[in-house]
Amino acid sequence: MYLSRFLSIHALWVTVSSVMQPYPLVWGHYDVCKTQIYTEEGKVWDYMACQPESTDMTKYLKVKLDPPDITCGDPPESFCAMGNPYMCNNECDASTPELAHPPELMFDFEGRHPSTFWQSATWKEYPKPLQVNITLSWSKTIELTDNIVITFESGRPDQMILEKSLDYGRTWQPYQYYATDCLDAFHMDPKSVKDLSQHTVLEIICTEEYSTGYTTNSKIIHFEIKDRFAFFAGPRLRNMASLYGQLDTTKKLRDFFTVTDLRIRLLRPAVGEIFVDELHLARYFYAISDIKVRGRCKCNLHATVCVYDNSKLTCECEHNTTGPDCGKCKKNYQGRPWSPGSYLPIPKGTANTCIPSISSIGTNVCDNELLHCQNGGTCHNNLRCLCPAAYTGIFCEKLRCEEAGSCGSDSGQAAPPQCSPALLLLTALLGTASPLAF
Q: Which residues does UniProt assign to the signal peptide (predicted)?
């Protein structure tokens, strides 16, 4: 009996363990910026590092094509299906919705068949290069959390560069080169992400892995984010503490996964042969059905919410920080230099909250939290206490009869204990000491 029960429990544990295997054993979600806890001094805020959830960032981007008139359909033209020179009865016409292929079709829902896609004009001006820049802009710093995936409806290009910007498109750096022949196209030896390591993870490589023309099931191009994470967190991303530690301490690594803009440079369409077939130029073009970019707003671990309002992403900053990326301390909270939050220690991290400036403490004469008006007085615009008729003083702490020397048993008013405004202010300031200790 006991043996069968033991075996049942063991089987259940094995089942539960196998289900949990793909998930990290220790994972900091960082989805809360602060919680209230009870201490010897009473209820206080406990602050922790926090960040928005990872999401589909293509919902918030703006796309720009260069040249701007490169999209097919104006004027209408015919093209060959998947590069087949004998199937050239397909038509692109911008004035007919069923035949139009505008840029927004790169980001619509892809659950239908046939797929919707953006398409360029054909290579009718050969031998002039057919080149297109597709720029994706967020007007906000974002952190990439998953692979960038580009799905082509045409053959994958023979030559392409994925670029990134960290300054809203003012300057650009290559992320990765793609070519059927890296040495010929970019004077680089071909590599894949598998050839990299922790020490070379930031190396910019040229890969031939995704440039195989019209081969069946060869529509997708990746930029591998998770494979690069895996150099620090392990193949199943279980050791996130190691990755977080590297992101905390290595700015170049953190910046590598951070962008404000991405640019896809299509330099040469899929030819499939050594020579271009000049008799059938309608078979050469670019067509993209889907682009996936997952990430989160960069809020420097000072916010869990990033709102999209008036076509703009903005962090809702916590920890007394402010700015588009929560990149500075709020006014009157500059008691120590601003610092980003830290992922460590797992699982709550360190908030590095901005604290009040010394000069800002006590600038209000009164308030409803620390500098209370006494004896029923009310605080007016934080500038003065409005006292009942019988009281006076900065905090309504004195009886009026005291000034006239008439307080006593005859007046029916007893003089309150002597407590100067300076002492009251000092007491209020000392009361802030506990919540401000980090």
A: 1-28
Residue 286 contacts residue 134 (beta carbons within 8 Å):
no
Cis preceding-peptide flag for 75 (omega within 30 of 0): yes
Radius of gyration of the chain (CA): 32
Report all structural domains of the chain as residue ranges with CATH numbers, in order of start. Answer: 27-52+299-360 (2.10.25.10), 55-295 (2.60.120.260), 361-400 (2.10.25.10)
Question: What tokens were used for 267?
Answer: 């330099």
End-to-end CA distance of the chain: 56
- C-alpha span between 356 and 7 (Å, rounded): 60
| Cα gap 364→355, rounded to integer Å | 17
Q: What are the structure tokens assigned to 367, written together?
A: 């308030």
Torsion angle in degrees (nearest 10) through CA of 121, 122, 123, 125: -60
Give the tens place of pLDDT for each residue, 384-419.
788 998 888 877 888 888 766 677 645 445 544 444
CB contact set of 40 (below 8 Å; sequence gap of 6+): none
Could you give the CA distance from residue 318 to residue 435 in angstroms, rounded to a whole number?
A: 16
* 277: Cα separation from own chain's centroid: 45
Q: Nearest 5°: CA angle at 137, between 341 and 141? A: 10
Pair 420, 431: CB distance under 8 Å? no
User: Is this prediction's pTM over 0.85?
Assistant: no
pLDDT, tens digit (0-9, with 9 covering 90-100), for 341-399 = 999 888 889 999 999 987 665 656 677 666 778 888 888 777 778 899 888 887 788 88
In 3-state terms, what secondary structure has residue 207? strand
